[in-house]
Amino acid sequence: MPATKKTTTVAKKRTVKKPEKIEKAEPQVGLKLRIKLRAYDHKIIDNSARQIIDIANRYGAEVLGPVPLPTEILKYTVNRSSFIHKNAREQFEMRVHKRIIDILNPNQEIIESLRDLNLPSGVDITIKI
């Protein structure tokens, strides 16, 4: 039997430099108004959001939104008759549309004009600072 030579290969170690992390300059946000809108009709809520954005742009504030949130669907099942046709049922649903608007660095004029804003009936608005 012939003698076999064992060959070993030695891999050279490579040194790889890790890329340096680049820090992104985020805008400094001192004060932020968060406006939440809720309504049953999507056309009314979109018009109300447009009014709020127009007010904020008039005074030169930065606006984020309107961001549409998931529509809340409330379903109700009701018996059609009380005793005889027990399996006959009717289903109703209400859809609640939601939007969020953020106003960055608002001034006192924006807050006052939003306080005096006249929105149509059926639109619920909450403002948090």
The class by helix and strand makeup works out as alpha+beta
**What is the CATH topology descriptor?**
Alpha-Beta Plaits
Query: Sheet bearing the most strands, described?
Result: 4 strands, antiparallel
CATH architecture label name? 2-Layer Sandwich
Helix content: 10-25%
The gross shape turns out to be flat
Strand percent estimate: 35-45%
Q: Give the strand tally.
A: 4
Mean pLDDT, all residues: 86
**Number of DSSP helices?**
2
Strand order of the largest sheet: 2-3-1-4
N-to-C series of helices and strands? EHEEHE
Alpha-carbon distance between the two ends:
88 Å
How many structural domains does the protein architecture include? 1
Write the topology of this structure.
Layout (H helix, E strand, L loop, with lengths): L31 E8 L2 H17 L3 E18 L9 E16 L3 H8 L7 E6 L1
Antiparallel strand pairs: 1-3, 1-4, 2-3
